[in-house]
Specification:
alpha/beta, 16 helices, six-stranded mixed beta sheet, 9 strands, about 10% strand, about 350 residues
Length: about 350
């Protein structure tokens, strides 16, 4: 019997959604996306629940993102339309969560990357466990920083946004809270109490307010946010108005700075097309105040990206053949034509 990849349950007036692919770090495929969308529809129609909690099975992580190997296979079998069908439905789910009539609480633990940020970050209350790590590492597979993460982090200073979204660095819960990817830090000891607490809160006249109050009583004091503090030290690097200038400046700043050296090497090794798309999207997103507009633009970026060779090649190199030796086309930032992203160049 095939094990369900997404589990649904109900505790009183609390609806539960649990990702159940722990061996794949709960990576999302279309079956899971469609199942969650259908369940959200059902709960909204029957008024059976007053709050929803979203979590992931297994200790390693909440969700490592979308199943891009499946997207690559769809691209090879059905062309660009086959691949973009995944992103259309994925983005629709995240937008649905962001504007949900029923408040959604996400439980972020372990690895929270890419689509994991999209799924959990747009919830109305985001609870993060000690030791979690967040990242948008899309440059390594020739994709771009999607899932409307730009919409989430837009209140952060430009240099912090640019540093996080370009480098793909894994950041701490304190950094995630500083960047508005999460709300409240919960200790490992208190983590197991959350389902029972949230079940009780779901009975309240205002379940979300009750959940915020109850979890605030458990909140751990966040320590210094090391990544955003590092980005602050390199503010002039990441505020530059030219992508190649950012990369060059980070290289110049790497003497005696191990993080700068590592992240510069990662930028040099990443897909130039992916980096250009992500850079331009940060700029364009600064003026977007409507999440529907954000996702609509990202659908256009996704189509442009999967139409270019780097996405298929990046997934091949990192996740299929695992030789970690992608042949990017083109090979340099200066060779990337911005014409393919012309819709990002105007507000």
């Amino acid at each position: 019997m095939t094990e369900e990849k997404t589990l649904f349950a109900q505790r009183g007036k609390l609806g539960e959604i649990k990702l159940n692919r722990p061996r794949a770090l709960n990576s999302l495929d279309l079956d899971m996306i469609d199942a969650m969308t259908a369940q959200l529809n059902a709960w909204e129609q029957d008024n059976a629940v007053s709050m929803i909690v979203l979590s992931g099975e297994g200790e390693k992580g909440f969700c490592a993102g979308g199943d891009v190997k499946a997207v690559r296979a769809a691209l090879e079998a059905g062309g660009v339309d086959g691949a973009t069908a995944f992103f259309d439905r994925e983005y629709a789910l995240y937008e649905r969560i962001a504007v949900s009539k029923i408040p959604v609480v996400s439980l972020q633990h372990g690895i929270v990357m890419g689509g994991g940020i999209g799924l959990s970050g747009h919830a109305q209350l985001r609870l993060v466990r000690e030791g979690a790590r967040f990242a948008m590492p899309e440059k390594s597979i020739g994709f771009f920083t999607d899932v409307a993460v730009n919409y989430l982090v837009k209140a952060a200073p430009l240099h912090q946004r640019m540093a996080f979204l370009l480098t793909g660095e894994l950041v701490s819960p304190a950094d995630a809270i500083a960047l508005n990817l999460s709300d409240t830090l919960i200790s490992e000891n208190d983590w197991a109490k959350l389902p029972e607490i949230l079940e009780e809160c779901a009975q309240a006249p205002d379940p979300l307010a009750a959940a915020k109050k109850a979890t605030a009583a458990l909140a751990q004091t966040t320590m210094d946010a090391p990544f955003t503090a590092w980005a602050d030290q390199h503010q002039s690097v990441f505020e530059r108005d030219d992508l190649q200038a950012i990369i060059d400046a980070l290289g110049a700043a790497s003497a005696g700075d191990e993080r700068a050296q590592k992240l510069h090497q990662g930028l040099v090794a990443g897909s130039p097309t992916s980096l250009m798309a992500s850079f331009l999207l940060v700029k364009r997103s600064a003026s977007i105040d409507d999440i529907a507009v954000q996702f609509e633009i990202e659908r256009d970026v996704a189509r442009a990206i999967v139409s270019a060779p780097d996405f298929s090649e990046g997934v091949r190199a990192v996740l299929v053949d695992k030789d970690n030796n992608p042949n990017w086309q083109p090979k340099s930032i200066r060779e990337v034509s911005q014409d393919q992203f012309s819709f990002l160049l105007t507000n």
